[in-house]
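Collaborator request, handled under Task 6.
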Amino acid sequence: MLLKKDKVTSPFLAEKFEVSRRTINRDIEDICKAGIPIISTQGYDGGIAIAEGYKIDKTIFTSDELQSIFAGLNAIDSISSNLSSEIIFGINFLRRKMLLYLTQGIF
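Structure tokens returned to the collaborator:
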């Protein structure tokens, strides 16, 4: 999402991914920890953006690899009764992200 837009707000992301603003804030914090420079500005015309000039190598996974990962995440549903709620939440979160990547042609 941040790769396609200059700036977005936490409420926009929360609504888009159907999670709380707190979850978005935690995710943004994790993205920063992963080394992606995120800039957050408050107030009128504020929002969240990737630092200008930062480029992400989109060739980490091919479209076919992403589809395979997505299929694997979907296959985990058959054993989900044996998994903790945290792991199930993480899998569902990844599944939503993968679906977004696949359907919007980000890669």
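The cover message to the collaborator said: "The CA atoms of residues 10 and 21 lie 6 Å apart. The radius of gyration is 15 Å. Please let us know whether this matches your experimental observations."
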